[in-house]
Amino acid sequence: MRLQAIHKYFYSLLFICFILFSCQKDKEIKSFDEIKNIDYGSKPRNQLDLFIPRNHGKKLPLVIFVHGGGWIGGDKSQVNSFLMPFLNKGIAVASIEYSLADGQNTADQINSDIKNAVSFLTNQASTYNLSTDAIGMMGYSAGSQLALLYSFKNGNIKAVASISGLANLTHPYYTDTNHTIHTLISQYVGTSYLSSANAWLSNSPFYYVESYKIPTYLVSAKSDEIVSLEDAKRFHERLDSLFIKNVYKEYEGDHQLFFDLAASEWDKIADWFLIYLNK
Question: I want to staple 151 with a disulfide (CB 3.0 to 4.6 A). Which of 117, 157, 210, 273 is the partner?
Protein backbone atom coordinates (compact mmCIF):
# COMPACT_ATOMS: atom_id res chain seq x y z
CA MET A 1 0.00 0.00 0.00
CA ARG A 2 2.84 2.34 0.82
CA LEU A 3 4.39 1.71 -2.62
CA GLN A 4 1.08 2.44 -4.32
CA ALA A 5 0.78 5.70 -2.39
CA ILE A 6 4.28 6.72 -3.51
CA HIS A 7 3.40 5.93 -7.15
CA LYS A 8 0.17 7.91 -6.87
CA TYR A 9 2.01 10.88 -5.36
CA PHE A 10 4.70 10.70 -8.09
CA TYR A 11 2.23 10.67 -10.96
CA SER A 12 0.21 13.47 -9.38
CA LEU A 13 3.38 15.53 -9.15
CA LEU A 14 4.17 14.84 -12.82
CA PHE A 15 0.66 15.91 -13.81
CA ILE A 16 0.97 19.17 -11.88
CA CYS A 17 4.35 19.89 -13.51
CA PHE A 18 2.85 19.21 -16.93
CA ILE A 19 0.00 21.65 -16.29
CA LEU A 20 2.38 24.34 -15.04
CA PHE A 21 4.64 23.88 -18.05
CA SER A 22 1.71 24.07 -20.44
CA CYS A 23 0.43 27.26 -18.82
CA GLN A 24 3.87 28.83 -19.05
CA LYS A 25 4.14 27.84 -22.71
CA ASP A 26 0.74 29.35 -23.44
CA LYS A 27 1.84 32.51 -21.67
CA GLU A 28 4.91 32.74 -23.91
CA ILE A 29 2.90 32.13 -27.06
CA LYS A 30 0.44 34.86 -26.09
CA SER A 31 3.06 37.51 -25.45
CA PHE A 32 2.00 39.26 -28.65
CA ASP A 33 -1.11 39.84 -30.74
CA GLU A 34 -1.18 38.49 -34.27
CA ILE A 35 -3.51 39.96 -36.88
CA LYS A 36 -3.46 38.12 -40.19
CA ASN A 37 -4.44 39.09 -43.73
CA ILE A 38 -5.18 42.77 -43.24
CA ASP A 39 -6.14 44.39 -46.55
CA TYR A 40 -4.10 47.51 -47.27
CA GLY A 41 -5.16 47.93 -50.90
CA SER A 42 -7.45 46.61 -53.62
CA LYS A 43 -5.07 44.21 -55.39
CA PRO A 44 -5.32 40.45 -54.65
CA ARG A 45 -1.95 40.35 -52.85
CA ASN A 46 -2.39 43.64 -51.01
CA GLN A 47 -2.40 42.04 -47.58
CA LEU A 48 -0.19 42.17 -44.52
CA ASP A 49 0.24 40.37 -41.23
CA LEU A 50 0.81 42.46 -38.11
CA PHE A 51 2.51 41.26 -34.93
CA ILE A 52 2.19 43.52 -31.88
CA PRO A 53 4.00 42.92 -28.55
CA ARG A 54 1.76 43.04 -25.49
CA ASN A 55 2.22 44.85 -22.20
CA HIS A 56 3.76 47.98 -23.66
CA GLY A 57 2.06 51.19 -22.59
CA LYS A 58 3.91 53.46 -25.00
CA LYS A 59 3.39 53.61 -28.73
CA LEU A 60 5.48 50.90 -30.36
CA PRO A 61 8.22 51.18 -32.98
CA LEU A 62 7.44 49.27 -36.16
CA VAL A 63 9.57 47.40 -38.68
CA ILE A 64 7.93 46.68 -42.02
CA PHE A 65 9.24 43.51 -43.67
CA VAL A 66 9.25 42.98 -47.46
CA HIS A 67 9.67 39.36 -48.49
CA GLY A 68 11.99 38.01 -51.16
CA GLY A 69 11.30 35.77 -54.13
CA GLY A 70 12.82 37.39 -57.20
CA TRP A 71 9.77 39.68 -57.58
CA ILE A 72 7.90 36.64 -58.94
CA GLY A 73 7.27 34.63 -55.77
CA GLY A 74 7.61 34.47 -52.00
CA ASP A 75 5.14 35.47 -49.31
CA LYS A 76 4.80 37.19 -45.96
CA SER A 77 5.42 33.99 -43.97
CA GLN A 78 9.17 34.58 -44.40
CA VAL A 79 8.83 36.90 -41.40
CA ASN A 80 8.95 33.85 -39.13
CA SER A 81 12.72 33.70 -39.62
CA PHE A 82 13.32 36.68 -37.33
CA LEU A 83 10.00 37.51 -35.69
CA MET A 84 10.58 36.66 -32.01
CA PRO A 85 13.88 38.54 -31.47
CA PHE A 86 12.10 41.71 -32.60
CA LEU A 87 8.90 41.15 -30.63
CA ASN A 88 10.88 40.32 -27.50
CA LYS A 89 12.48 43.77 -27.70
CA GLY A 90 9.14 45.56 -28.01
CA ILE A 91 9.25 46.10 -31.79
CA ALA A 92 6.03 45.54 -33.72
CA VAL A 93 6.47 43.84 -37.09
CA ALA A 94 4.36 44.06 -40.24
CA SER A 95 4.98 41.57 -43.04
CA ILE A 96 3.56 42.63 -46.36
CA GLU A 97 2.74 40.91 -49.62
CA TYR A 98 2.69 42.75 -52.91
CA SER A 99 1.79 42.21 -56.57
CA LEU A 100 4.19 39.87 -58.33
CA ALA A 101 5.94 40.55 -61.62
CA ASP A 102 3.77 38.40 -63.86
CA GLY A 103 3.89 40.32 -67.12
CA GLN A 104 0.99 42.57 -66.18
CA ASN A 105 2.44 43.85 -62.91
CA THR A 106 5.88 45.44 -63.16
CA ALA A 107 7.96 47.85 -61.10
CA ASP A 108 5.47 50.72 -61.08
CA GLN A 109 2.67 48.58 -59.64
CA ILE A 110 4.92 46.72 -57.20
CA ASN A 111 6.52 49.92 -55.90
CA SER A 112 3.06 51.44 -55.60
CA ASP A 113 1.99 48.49 -53.45
CA ILE A 114 4.91 49.07 -51.09
CA LYS A 115 4.00 52.75 -50.82
CA ASN A 116 0.35 51.94 -50.16
CA ALA A 117 1.27 49.45 -47.43
CA VAL A 118 3.42 52.03 -45.62
CA SER A 119 0.68 54.66 -45.98
CA PHE A 120 -1.91 52.26 -44.60
CA LEU A 121 0.19 51.41 -41.56
CA THR A 122 0.94 55.09 -40.94
CA ASN A 123 -2.72 56.06 -41.21
CA GLN A 124 -3.83 53.19 -38.95
CA ALA A 125 -1.00 53.59 -36.43
CA SER A 126 -3.25 54.76 -33.60
CA THR A 127 -5.51 51.73 -34.08
CA TYR A 128 -2.61 49.38 -33.39
CA ASN A 129 -0.71 51.52 -30.85
CA LEU A 130 2.15 52.18 -33.29
CA SER A 131 4.39 55.23 -33.44
CA THR A 132 4.44 57.05 -36.77
CA ASP A 133 7.80 58.53 -35.77
CA ALA A 134 9.50 55.17 -35.36
CA ILE A 135 9.07 53.16 -38.55
CA GLY A 136 11.83 51.06 -40.08
CA MET A 137 11.95 48.72 -43.05
CA MET A 138 13.73 45.48 -43.81
CA GLY A 139 13.80 43.22 -46.83
CA TYR A 140 15.27 40.00 -48.08
CA SER A 141 16.64 39.59 -51.62
CA ALA A 142 14.22 41.30 -54.05
CA GLY A 143 12.37 42.57 -50.98
CA SER A 144 15.54 44.39 -49.94
CA GLN A 145 15.65 46.25 -53.25
CA LEU A 146 12.02 47.29 -52.73
CA ALA A 147 12.61 48.35 -49.11
CA LEU A 148 15.77 50.30 -49.93
CA LEU A 149 14.17 51.98 -52.95
CA TYR A 150 11.12 53.07 -50.98
CA SER A 151 13.18 54.27 -48.01
CA PHE A 152 15.61 56.42 -49.96
CA LYS A 153 13.02 57.82 -52.36
CA ASN A 154 10.50 58.83 -49.69
CA GLY A 155 12.55 59.65 -46.61
CA ASN A 156 9.87 58.77 -44.03
CA ILE A 157 11.70 55.67 -42.80
CA LYS A 158 14.03 55.98 -39.81
CA ALA A 159 16.27 53.00 -40.64
CA VAL A 160 16.42 50.24 -43.25
CA ALA A 161 18.04 46.80 -43.32
CA SER A 162 18.89 44.73 -46.38
CA ILE A 163 19.57 41.00 -46.28
CA SER A 164 21.12 39.66 -49.51
CA GLY A 165 19.69 42.60 -51.43
CA LEU A 166 20.32 44.44 -54.68
CA ALA A 167 21.35 48.09 -54.71
CA ASN A 168 22.39 48.90 -58.27
CA LEU A 169 20.44 47.04 -60.94
CA THR A 170 22.83 48.43 -63.57
CA HIS A 171 25.81 46.62 -62.01
CA PRO A 172 27.57 44.54 -64.72
CA TYR A 173 26.72 41.31 -62.89
CA TYR A 174 23.00 42.01 -63.26
CA THR A 175 23.12 43.30 -66.83
CA ASP A 176 24.92 40.14 -67.98
CA THR A 177 22.28 38.10 -69.83
CA ASN A 178 24.03 34.87 -68.79
CA HIS A 179 22.87 35.32 -65.20
CA THR A 180 19.42 34.23 -64.01
CA ILE A 181 19.02 37.46 -62.09
CA HIS A 182 19.02 39.40 -65.38
CA THR A 183 15.81 37.64 -66.44
CA LEU A 184 14.19 38.33 -63.06
CA ILE A 185 15.09 42.01 -63.11
CA SER A 186 13.81 42.30 -66.68
CA GLN A 187 10.49 40.87 -65.55
CA TYR A 188 10.32 43.23 -62.56
CA VAL A 189 11.28 46.37 -64.50
CA GLY A 190 9.22 45.32 -67.52
CA THR A 191 12.05 45.57 -70.02
CA SER A 192 15.55 44.27 -70.64
CA TYR A 193 18.62 46.34 -69.84
CA LEU A 194 19.48 46.67 -73.54
CA SER A 195 16.00 47.99 -74.28
CA SER A 196 15.95 50.56 -71.47
CA ALA A 197 18.97 51.04 -69.25
CA ASN A 198 17.26 54.08 -67.73
CA ALA A 199 14.36 51.95 -66.43
CA TRP A 200 16.86 49.73 -64.61
CA LEU A 201 18.68 52.76 -63.21
CA SER A 202 15.48 54.41 -61.99
CA ASN A 203 14.70 51.32 -59.88
CA SER A 204 18.15 51.19 -58.29
CA PRO A 205 18.38 52.37 -54.66
CA PHE A 206 22.07 53.12 -55.29
CA TYR A 207 21.16 56.34 -57.11
CA TYR A 208 18.77 57.75 -54.50
CA VAL A 209 20.86 57.74 -51.34
CA GLU A 210 21.83 61.42 -51.59
CA SER A 211 18.23 62.53 -51.06
CA TYR A 212 17.78 61.18 -47.52
CA LYS A 213 20.56 59.99 -45.25
CA ILE A 214 18.84 56.95 -43.80
CA PRO A 215 20.85 54.63 -41.50
CA THR A 216 21.34 51.32 -43.30
CA TYR A 217 22.23 47.77 -42.23
CA LEU A 218 23.61 45.54 -44.99
CA VAL A 219 24.04 41.77 -44.70
CA SER A 220 25.65 39.71 -47.46
CA ALA A 221 26.60 36.07 -47.99
CA LYS A 222 30.13 35.40 -49.21
CA SER A 223 29.00 32.62 -51.56
CA ASP A 224 25.76 34.18 -52.78
CA GLU A 225 24.96 32.66 -56.16
CA ILE A 226 22.07 35.03 -56.96
CA VAL A 227 23.05 38.59 -56.06
CA SER A 228 26.42 40.30 -56.44
CA LEU A 229 28.63 40.61 -53.38
CA GLU A 230 30.53 43.39 -55.17
CA ASP A 231 27.27 45.33 -55.61
CA ALA A 232 26.72 45.22 -51.84
CA LYS A 233 30.31 46.34 -51.15
CA ARG A 234 30.02 49.26 -53.57
CA PHE A 235 26.76 50.31 -51.97
CA HIS A 236 28.41 50.24 -48.56
CA GLU A 237 31.28 52.36 -49.92
CA ARG A 238 28.82 54.83 -51.45
CA LEU A 239 27.02 55.20 -48.14
CA ASP A 240 30.35 55.78 -46.40
CA SER A 241 31.37 58.40 -48.96
CA LEU A 242 28.17 60.32 -48.23
CA PHE A 243 28.63 59.97 -44.44
CA ILE A 244 25.45 57.92 -44.14
CA LYS A 245 25.53 55.74 -41.04
CA ASN A 246 25.66 52.11 -42.04
CA VAL A 247 26.70 48.65 -40.95
CA TYR A 248 28.07 46.14 -43.44
CA LYS A 249 28.41 42.46 -42.55
CA GLU A 250 29.48 39.42 -44.54
CA TYR A 251 28.75 35.88 -43.44
CA GLU A 252 29.68 32.48 -44.74
CA GLY A 253 26.81 31.03 -46.74
CA ASP A 254 24.75 31.39 -49.90
CA HIS A 255 21.57 33.22 -50.90
CA GLN A 256 19.61 31.30 -48.26
CA LEU A 257 21.55 33.13 -45.53
CA PHE A 258 18.37 34.90 -44.43
CA PHE A 259 16.90 31.60 -43.26
CA ASP A 260 20.15 30.46 -41.62
CA LEU A 261 21.04 33.48 -39.47
CA ALA A 262 21.24 32.64 -35.78
CA ALA A 263 18.83 34.24 -33.31
CA SER A 264 21.79 36.10 -31.80
CA GLU A 265 22.40 37.83 -35.13
CA TRP A 266 18.74 38.83 -35.41
CA ASP A 267 19.07 40.21 -31.87
CA LYS A 268 21.89 42.46 -33.07
CA ILE A 269 19.82 43.71 -36.00
CA ALA A 270 16.84 44.39 -33.70
CA ASP A 271 19.10 46.28 -31.27
CA TRP A 272 20.47 48.33 -34.18
CA PHE A 273 16.94 49.28 -35.24
CA LEU A 274 16.14 50.42 -31.70
CA ILE A 275 19.02 52.91 -31.80
CA TYR A 276 17.19 54.85 -34.50
CA LEU A 277 13.57 54.00 -33.79
CA ASN A 278 13.78 55.14 -30.17
CA LYS A 279 15.17 58.58 -31.01
Answer: 157
- Could you list the beta-strand ranges (E) of 167-262: 216-221, 246-251
Residues 22 and 67 grouped into a single domain = no
My answer on whether 59 and 11 are in the same domain is no
Cα-based distances in Å from 202 to 37, 153, 167, 242, 264: 31, 11, 11, 20, 36
- Fill in the DSSP letter of residue 31: T
Question: 4 and 17: one domain?
Answer: yes
Are residues 53 and 2 part of one domain? no
Show the domain range for 24: 1-28
Say what the pLDDT of residue 30 is. Answer: 55
DSSP 78: G
Domain total in the chain: 2
Whether residue 216 contacts residue 160, with contact meaning beta carbons closer than 8 Å, is answered with yes
Question: Does residue 123 share a domain with residue 155?
Answer: yes
First to last CA, the chain: 68
Query: Do 149 and 117 reside in the same domain of the chain?
Result: yes
Rounded CA-CA distance 219/167 in Å is 12
Task: Quote the CA–CA distance of 155 and 203 in Å, as a whole number.
Answer: 16
- Asked if residue 6 and residue 100 are part of one domain, the reply reads no
Sign of the alpha-carbon torsion through 88, 266, 259, 230: positive
% residues pLDDT > 90 (the chain): 86
Checking if the pLDDT of 212 tops 70, the result is yes
> Per-residue pLDDT averaged across 237-249, rounded?
98
Q: State how beta strands 47-53 and 92-96 pair.
A: antiparallel
CA–CA–CA angle 53, 129, 151 (5° rounding): 90
Buried b (16+ CB within 10 A) or exposed e, 200-222: bebbbbbbbbeeeebbbbbbbbe
